[in-house]
Amino acid sequence: MASYAFVARESGTGREIRSSIEAATEQAAVAALLNRSMLVMSIQENVGKKGRTGGGRVALMDLVIFTRQLATMIDAGLAMVQSLEALAEQASSKVMRDVIKDITARVEAGDSFSEALQKHARVFNRLYICMVGAGEKGGLLAEILARLATYLENAARLRKKVKSAMMYPTVVTVVAILITIFLLVKVVPVFGEIFSSFGSKLPGPTLFLIHLSDMVKKYLIFILIGGGGLVYGWLHFIRTKPGRQFWDANRIRLPVFGGIAHKICLARFTRTLASLIRSGVPILEVLQIVSQTVGNVVMEKAIQTTASDIERGESIASALGKHPVFPSMIIRMITAGEQTGKIDNMLERISDFLDDEVETTLSGLTSLIEPILIVFLGVVVGGMVICMFLPIFKMSEIVNPHH
Questions:
Q1: Residue-wise pLDDT tens digits, 140-195
Q2: Cβ atoms within 10 A of the Cβ of 259, count?
């Protein structure tokens, strides 16, 4: 008996259930769950030693290279096993090499390529597996893999753009904090000792800075531990179900950054939807997959509701139009795509447009952030310097207060 991990929904309540079940085969496990009035959303075998990859992760670019090269080899007429063996030999990542070797062994043993991929759900998500399955059924595996590679390349490019845009302000902010702590802990106390020897009342800003320096110096360890605890607590909170719902609902409303996050989720939604529809995956299954890959709980719930409305006979555009999270521009373009019968092309255009908007916004944001950070550093460091030099400017009053 094998053990299968599954995600299912109760037919009566719609409640999502994640658990495992033991059965002789995957089909027997699905049948047993259906007998319990559960609709199976995903199921995979809890693999033993054969399917392990050391618990590591595969970089997105490694997955892109694997997909692109496999598509080229299959399109050139090479057999699947021969292609996989060649890719395993040249894989630079040990984890990826082990994964490809295991997939090769499973394909040689009689599994289909998509079935072999299901044993490595940490590397190949449901979108990847479903598109490969559709390609195998339709005899268009090379074409589907090429589309998948393009999709992954676009996702990697956008992710790289976002990371590079956020790297500069993050580094400058960290450096500013470190400089401020150094000044408060090492520099300000020296000035404080000099000024205390005057025996006169110091200017208010200087006194405030000296008291702040004393407090930071005395409680620095507790401040660092408290700051680290707050960051860890926040990261842990947004990983929980209520925390993720709170964060996903509010982050798309943030000024500037909220608009970027919203467009990234919309671009991912439209591009994934276009790829799956073009691959011939049934629309209800498409929406179920897209809801799990969109990356936002609010949009995920909206897409699941949309799937229910479409099942009752509504069009995609009218079902999506009920949810404010989808802008009217996207709804109009999807409507036009449905009317012309080219919804996949229209969705692809929407995703390209959104990607361009995100890149333009990030470029403008990077240009805007640079002077803002310079001003911030100037205000913080310059303000501390002025506070320290105020007594020097008023030296005659401090040294001879009765004059």
A1: 788 888 888 888 888 888 788 778 777 877 888 888 888 888 888 888 888 878 77
A2: 15
